[in-house]
Amino acid sequence: SDPQQRLLLQESWNALEDAGYGQEDMSNKSIGMFVGAETGDYQGLASGSNITSNHNAMLAARLAYFLNLSGPVMSIDTTCSSALVALHQACVNLRQHECDTAIVAGVNLCFALETYQTLSHAGMLSPDGKCFTFDKRANGMVPGEAVVAVVLKPLSQAIADGDPVYASIRGSGLNYDGKTNGITAPSGTAQTALLKQVYEQAQVDVEHIDYIVAHGTGTQLGDPIEL
Questions:
Q1: Whole-angstrom Cα distance, residue 99 to residue 110?
Q2: Are 4 and 109 within 8 A, CB to CB?
Q3: Which CATH number fits domain 3-109+145-167: 1.10.510.10, 3.90.1150.10, 3.60.15.10, 3.40.47.10?
């Protein structure tokens, strides 16, 4: 089986335990499972494995099946933004009362040499093996591996239930670049429009923003547009 399934299960379980939930609290409850993950390459190394062991759609389904969850279940692949899109979708489902609680997870593991070769041939990887983000030396990205899981609930409900609250999400949003100089080329206009939309939705004054987590791919095209 794809190791991503096991790691997602472990981290989702850890997140639920940290939130104060045991297996009895979760079983057959309206809890959604939202997983962001790019198309994995493990299947190419595991010949003969069945589809439920390796298909990306099973990343979320396996977790929901094991935990006996009854809310919305989806695996989302929007490349770099997969986990954040999963987070946004979870927020939407919570606001629409399609689930009471949401588990949001993201995972990326690289197993096959061919994955790096493909990215390199596309000119996306740094030949130096270093990601010089927002630097004149920027010449490509360096892939990373990680797995993460968080538990979301409406803030008022989390407070009422006595749950530990680490942060609140004021707003989120999605859009697309439309037609640019290339299908992978970002659009500064689209990025600006999205930020304005989310700030307005969340009623946040940009002067009060203290910390920004950037995409920061370390490319000559993407970094200046993001800035």
A1: 32
A2: yes
A3: 3.40.47.10
Could you read off the pLDDT of 136-157 as tens digits, one per residue? 999 999 999 999 999 999 999 9
pLDDT, one tens digit per residue, over 172-218 is 999 999 988 888 888 999 999 999 999 999 999 999 999 999 999 99
Residue 104 burial (10 A CB sphere; 0-12, 13-18, 19+): buried
DSSP notation for the chain = --HHHHHHHHHHHHHHHHTT--HHHHTTS-EEEEEEEPPPSGGGTSTT--HHHH-TTHHHHHHHHHHT--S-EEEE--GGGHHHHHHHHHHHHHHTTS-SEEEEEEEE----HHHHHHHHHTT-B-TTS---TTSTT---B----EEEEEEE--HHHHHHTT----------------S-SSTT---HHHHHHHHHHHHHHHT--GGG-----------TTHHHHH-
Q: Give the tokens for residue 206.
A: 């940009």
CA distance 5 to 59: 6
Q: At a CB cut-off of 8 Å and minimum separation 6, what does 89 contact?
A: 34, 74, 76
**% residues pLDDT > 90 (the chain):** 73
pTM for this structure?
0.91
Domain boundaries, the chain: 3-109+145-167
